[in-house]
Amino acid sequence: MSNQNGFTLIETIFVLCIFSLIVSFSFLLVRPQMFFLDKHLFFSQFKDDLFYMQQYAISNQTVVSVNILPLSHRYYAKDQNGKFIVDRTYSNKVNIREGSQKLYFRYNTTGNINTFGTLYIDILDETYRFTFYIGKGRFYAVQI
Question: Does CATH place domain 40-143 in 1.10.10.10?
């Protein structure tokens, strides 16, 4: 009488197939989550940076110039002395393009923006309208 305590090859292959199916389904669920995180990270960082640039202009009584460079997926802000305040890169899944607002603008010493209008932000297959108001430099984003 022989003692057989192991699994057969068929049982092992069956378990590995089930495991690989479960893992492949989990990868399908991770992709939308990564898209959501990319989008959320970009918008929260961009809004925080714009508020910081505005507050910097007010508190230091200096003009802050903002430049958005969509080809290199980067934006930066400098004060009137040329000192970098913010220099940030963002995901290559995000594309910022001009609407009625140019990709360069300034915050003056009172925190007001020198121009007003709309930027368009494309994140994969979703488009957002980012609107700057005249006056206090306020802005908002909405999906279109």
Answer: no
- Model pTM? 0.73
Tens digits of residue pLDDT in 30-39: 666 666 777 8
Which residue reads 């989990």 in tokens?
Answer: 26
What lies within 8 Å, CB to CB, of 137 at 6+ separation is 54, 107, 111, 112, 113
For 99, which DSSP code?
A: S
DSSP string, 108-133: -TTS-BS--EEEEEEETTEEEEEEEP
Render pLDDT for 32-63 as a digit per residue (tens, 0 to 9). 666 677 788 888 899 999 999 999 999 999 99
Measured CA to CA in angstroms, residue 2 lies from 8, 11, 110 at distances of 15, 20, 89
